[in-house]
Amino acid sequence: MLGKRHNVLAGAIEGGGTKFVCAVGSSPHNLSWTEFPTGDNPIRVLAQVTDWLNEQQRERGALQAIGIGSFGPLDLHPGSPTYGYITSTPKPGWRNTDVMGAVRRAFPEIPIGFDTDVNAAALGEYFWGNTSGLSDFVYVTIGTGIGAGGVAGRQLIHGLVHPEMGHMLLPRVHGDTFAGVCPYHGACWEGLCSGPALLKRSGMLAEALPPEHEAWALETQYIAYAVANIACMLSPQRVIIGGGVGNAGRLGQNQFFRLIREKTRAALSGYIASPALCEEIGDYIVPPHLGDNAGICGALALAQIALNDS
Amino acid sequence: MLGKRHNVLAGAIEGGGTKFVCAVGSSPHNLSWTEFPTGDNPIRVLAQVTDWLNEQQRERGALQAIGIGSFGPLDLHPGSPTYGYITSTPKPGWRNTDVMGAVRRAFPEIPIGFDTDVNAAALGEYFWGNTSGLSDFVYVTIGTGIGAGGVAGRQLIHGLVHPEMGHMLLPRVHGDTFAGVCPYHGACWEGLCSGPALLKRSGMLAEALPPEHEAWALETQYIAYAVANIACMLSPQRVIIGGGVGNAGRLGQNQFFRLIREKTRAALSGYIASPALCEEIGDYIVPPHLGDNAGICGALALAQIALNDS
Q: Is the complex ipTM higher than 0.85?
């Protein structure tokens, strides 16, 4: 369960497709940070990460636990021979990488928490952000890819593997023939709405795209379809949307969220009779309170709850 | 959690759009049954139900608990003033009906479990059927409407309201212009694939539709898109599909499931690297072990676990 967190000095590792962020502290308010480019050599970057954590330990005192939130797909089944691995990623050099093992060998005596980057971010928002006190919510990141972490009944959702919500299939906006960029599904959510999709559709990065460009109208419409589906499937009490595209560049975050809320409400057509999905939808679909730090704060939370299982 | 069931004599009520099924027993193997048409007079049918349960109690001994699995939408929040009500249903006469209160007044001394018909069915399959031992799974019923109950981390999913998976939005099969029958969303999953949708599309009931009719190809394709989305969103270890359309009439259940499995695998394109979604998909998408009795057996299970909270 999410409820039991220990406020102790811990290490946090956020493994992303571009960089590994590392931090040490006991809360988001007293973190020391650093980062390393992810590159294509996992042995090197994981050594940089563990060396830095060791240095911090000498400066700030003994770490009580370490949390790792990583890009995936991951093996999250404690009984499995590849538990703690990044498994079938297309990312060069990273396929079948034993991330947890590398950290475990450097810190053999302390509990280590391991989960997806998006499950970690969901947890970060639960402890220090926008979902505090809720039992059911979803954290979505829209950037290089689209991923989501989900909490149901105060537990992170794992199941068969872990959710891959970015690959859900969506209806097409009438007249939109863009083929999408997902190598597996073409026009799945990620294929239609990730940063690379927006770039391919418009020829511009999200940061540069003018607010009146049609690509923003399509982007927010597809996100709204996806949020409507999340509401139907998981019945969350809140949906948080972060990530680079979620920062919404020149469109502005206010307008981005206003459009998504309006279109989600339209897509649901009042079927689910809850104020949260009608007049209170402004509190239902929100940016992360922790902003771009949700992931690393979540890794810290993973560390602190790992003590429960140790 | 789902794990704690008490094998005691209990009452079970399955409230459906057409009929209310009632049963008394301690397991699916020793149930006495009856049923009453749902009609448009909740006071009458709920009196019939509670009178019958009282008769059974005189014959078979004191009921230790009662479980109710009902069509919805329902208020499932124990603190709410309308907890235990059917809320915003379009079903004539049933809007804002205090189902649980009617049963509580007749049986004031014993615990009463209350959940959606599909959550109940999911629970029935967990205790006596096809999902025993699993932590994450989904039960889908395709009939007059489409609904689904989900279990994540050995808990039924509730959240804001409860899942309404039948209303997820799906991509269109190229060239299919059928408008769908959902009064809220037109061509959502239920709008495209429920029994009434199949009837409107083909002019025939599922039972009569020839196996080679194009409507079966579309039906199984859209179900496959929906199951692929369920796999991406909830990462279940198994998906059970029941209900009247799930019996598949002249197409036959074997062929119906073979088509859905094949098309789900194609829709996922190997992205989620799990044997369950590739070579073992025959065990992943299955009919209910309890057949049409999953719902009433699930209501019995709701009764038996209600003792935990009492």
A: yes
